[in-house]
Amino acid sequence: MSSLGRMLGVLDLFDDRHLTRTAEDISAALDVSLPTGYRYVRLLLEAGLLQRVEDSHYALGPRIILLDHYIRKADPVLREGMPVMRELVAATGFDCVVSALFGAQVLDTHREMGGTPATLAYGRGRPRPPFQGAAPKVLLAALPPAQLRKIFDARRDEAVRSGLPAEWSDFRKQFAAIRKAGHYVSIGELEPQLAAVAAPIPKADGGAWAALSLVFDTSRLSIVDVDKMVHLITEGAARIGGRLA
User: Fold this and answer.
1) Domains of the chain, start order
2) For 80-91, what is each residue's pLDDT tens digit?
3) A Pfam family for this UniProt protein (predicted)?
């Protein structure tokens, strides 16, 4: 990896368990000398990508907030999808969420809140478990078999812990069925109090731009017309996909 690549790799060292890092932590994690680690920190501080907090610890910097603003403005899925999401919220009263697959990570990119917003453990920017919940499953189902196999091979144990088949042939069949259905309904898979109905926002090549979901409390299942929810979410996802095409 180039020196620039290693320096930018500093940003990947921060997560929910490591909200701050010292220069010593960074040097050890990247397997570089301490002077090199300090140089990376200094350059990232100057760029606003890191900030000094307390006790010689560093956290991600304010420049990332600015960059996130530009990411939102440039995202074609959000540009075309937000009006549809608002229509779905108005029609159902439920939260509407867009989620996308970045490599092997599933991230929520936007949420339009309903009348009684759900309490979500995963919001914009926090990686979601890839095998639990409606949105991740429709995203994985839209992948080509070879790409899906790579994810299965790399994270098979996690898939099994999530209740998915341990054999590739059965795993593939399950996701092929989701792809054929064109939607997925999850009940308490990721968060026990929540249900979701998701559909892929289709690409012309058969893949998916993202997943569109309606999220609501499981206590509403007895009065919710799930078939109507499926119709609304698949029709909304198809409209967004058509606009993107």
Assistant:
1) 3-66 (1.10.10.10), 75-244 (3.30.450.40)
2) 999 999 999 999
3) IclR_C
